[in-house]
Specification:
heterodimer, A: 175 residues, alpha/beta, Glutaredoxin, five-stranded mixed beta sheet, two-stranded antiparallel sheet, 5 helices, elongated, B: 154 residues, mainly alpha, Helicase, Ruva Protein, domain 3, 2 domains
Chain lengths: 175, 154
């Protein structure tokens, strides 16, 4: 029986390595999941007012980090435009390391699904949220807890099969 | 003789000048109040990972996010934060992955202890196998043979 132990250990090792092949190393798990979202305060794009994340208390919301220079943002943007039409929940944009005029031009071309857009020209808000690649998307529940983070563009399938069910449960739970 | 040694000395000084100039060329803008702060900064940028270019540390990377993190570390070092405090800030934002040396905790026990466990299992097997082959080579000892014969005769 003991004879097979090395083979068993080898098989387990191969199993781990095989699983490793399917993982995406650029997706680093966020330490924020299940924790209170960091506070955000910042100027709102094209407005005199400023954004304060405390105003979002009591509602489920989405924070989408994007920039006009980000190519993959174009890929996921239609999903947000579509989501905004349903008016289910506020979508907040974080315009990361961008120029205001570029951001405005980009939005007029691809559509503006955002209820508010926070300007983050220096990337300071992004740093607070652990952003390291654009686009990134956070889902925050009514208690201000980060429930989900997506790194990279959200495909139509991902939106339908993963994000929407999660949003629906959170919205049901909140109301 | 005198002229020759002077010449050698100047060559040496010249080379030394190039080497030191190069070692500071990477961070030409940064000024620290104390050498301690500079050392803290260097250590922190070496021990933390650039998440965009995952096999580089912050010191070696010029990616946007690495520059942002270096600036953040620099400002925190200047404002007197200790190295563990700054490291904790980075981990709270970016997770354990930002550390080049994974911490020793429940989720990483297998990572740290696994190799040693495998080594001991391997050694144990090697000892077993070598003992078996010795028994085969030398054959059973005379006492056991005598006992076996006794049992057979009964």
């Amino acid at each position: 029986m003991l004879k097979f132990l090395p083979i068993a250990i080898f098989a387990v090792l191969v199993g781990f390595l095989y699983k490793g092949l399917a993982l995406n190393p650029s997706e680093v798990p966020s330490p924020f999941i299940g924790k209170l979202a960091p506070e955000v305060r910042g100027p709102i794009l094209n407005a005199q007012s400023s954004f304060n994340s405390q105003d979002m208390a009591g509602q489920v919301w989405i924070l989408n980090v994007w920039a006009s220079w980000c190519r993959e943002c174009v890929v996921e943007h239609p999903q947000f435009v579509e989501l905004a039409k349903a008016k289910k929940l506020p979508i907040i944009g974080l315009n990361y390391k961008d120029k205001s005029e570029d951001a405005v031009a980009w939005l007029s071309r691809f559509g503006n699904p955002y209820n508010n857009i926070i300007e983050d020209q220096q990337g300071a808000v992004g740093l607070d949220w652990g952003v390291y690649a654009v686009p990134e998307t956070f889902i925050i529940d009514d208690k201000g807890v980060v429930r989900h983070k997506v790194i990279g563009p959200i495909s139509e399938e991902a939106m339908q099969q993963k994000i929407m069910p999660l949003l629906n449960t959170l919205l049901e739970h909140a109301s | 003789m005198m002229a020759k040694s002077l010449y050698l000395l100047s060559v040496c000084l010249f080379c030394f000048g190039i080497v030191t100039a190069q070692s500071f060329a990477a961070e030409p803008m940064l000024k620290f109040e104390t050498d301690e702060q500079a050392a803290t900064y260097l250590k922190l940028t070496k021990d933390h990972r650039c998440l965009k270019c995952q096999n580089q540390n912050l010191a070696d990377s010029n990616a946007g996010i690495a520059q942002d993190l270096k600036r953040e570390i620099y400002q925190r070092v200047l404002s007197g934060d200790s190295a563990p405090d700054i490291s904790e800030y980075l981990v709270s934002r970016y997770g354990d992955f930002v550390l080049y040396r994974p911490p020793f905790k429940v989720t990483t026990y297998a990572l740290w202890l696994g190799p040693f466990i495998l080594l001991f299992v391997g050694l144990w097997f090697a000892m077993r196998i070598s003992r078996q082959s010795r028994v085969q080579r030398e054959g059973p000892d005379t006492d056991s043979l005598a006992r076996a014969r006794e049992l057979l005769d009964d």
